[in-house]
Amino acid sequence: MIRSVPEIDVAGARTLLRAGALLVDVRTPAEWDAGHAPDAVHVPLETVPAQASALPRDRVVVVICRSGRRSQAAVAELVARGFDAHNLTGGMLAWVQAGLPVVSASGAAPAVI
């Protein structure tokens, strides 16, 4: 069971991102390729422990997945390592519902899978 982690909704995430926060997408490569936020950094969930040291500690980190469950686990890991990290509740589904941009890796029409 994942302990409680800092949560943020899409509006709050947008505010943090505009202020310089880093958006980290922890979905699988196939999900990332199909569609992701344009300014996100891809760090698949299983690589978060190994790649955490490469993330900037001087920025707030907003973590996103498809629905908010995997990102919750990533935030727990990052918070345990001293990061100021927040889980984007609703994930990419909420991102798209809010009308925010999504791009694909191939340039094809993006999709959240």
Can you offer a commentary on this structure?
This protein has 113 residues and is α/β, with parallel strands linked by helices. The chain is built from 5 helices and 5 strands; from the N terminus they run βαβαβαβαβα.
Which short descriptors sum up this protein?
single chain, about 110 residues, alpha/beta, Oxidized Rhodanese, domain 1, 5-stranded parallel sheet, 5 helices, 5 strands, about 15% strand
User: Termini separation (Å)?
Assistant: 25 Å
Largest sheet, spatial ordering of strands: 1-5-4-2-3
Major β-sheet, in short?
5 strands, parallel
Q: Number of DSSP strands?
A: 5
CATH superfamily: Rhodanese-like domain
In short:
34% of the residues lie in helices and 14% in strands. It has 113 residues and is α/β, with parallel strands linked by helices.
